[in-house]
Amino acid sequence: MKRKILFLVVCIFCLCGCTNNAPKDAVKEYLEKYRNFTSEVEENLQKNISEEDFTEEQQEQYLLIMKRQFVSLEYQIKEEIFNGDRATVLVDITVFDYHASIRDALEEKSEQDNYIDIQLKKMNEETKRTKYTLELYTYYENDSWLLEQPYEETLQKIEGITDLKKENVKILK
After folding, report:
1. How far apart are the first and last CA of the chain?
2. pTM of the prediction?
């Protein structure tokens, strides 16, 4: 589910017609759309959440949880590494550690409990933050630096849920 949400958001970001004079400008624009929780981000998030098997209340909770994650995203662009008309931008980010929340929800789950509700509750209560380094790839085209589609692992880091897929942890569903 999260892959679909972020894929659509990323596609919109990558296709926008803004002029970026440096690779770091394209990355900054991308991350600022998360931080500002633009209408594009919200609309795509709502659309994808509505396609999931959530109650209306769960949809609202999840939207608020992800909004909290995105607007509290902290980042620092560390380096640009050029290779002709391509560049890699290294960025340190700090996000809520929803990975820990989801693992806590799994430990607390019982047969009578609704796992989705427990997971949402844990994610909403999360205060621990975690840091990651992202490698974002850009390319130069039509007098502007554009962001390539980030890898799934990068998107998971932005969401604060990295490594869950490797551990076969089911996310929300």
Report:
1. 9
2. 0.81
Residue extents of the structural domains in the chain: 2-159
CATH label, 2-159, candidates 3.10.450, 3.40.50, 1.20.120, 3.90.75: 3.10.450
| H/E segment holding residue 56 | helix 56-71
Tokens of 2: 């999260």
By DSSP bridging, strand 129-141 and strand 144-147 are antiparallel
**Maximum Cα–Cα distance across the chain:** 58
Query: Does the pLDDT of residue 100 top 80, yes or no?
Result: yes
Q: Helix, strand, coil: what percent of the chain each, to 5?
A: 50, 20, 30
Instruction: Provide the β-strand partners of residue 13.
Output: none
From residue 140, give the alpha-carbon distance in Å to each of 7, 8, 13, 20, 81: 21, 22, 15, 9, 13
pLDDT tens per residue, range 103-139: 888 888 776 678 889 999 999 999 999 999 999 999 9
Give the side-chain half-sphere CA count within 13 A for 93: 31
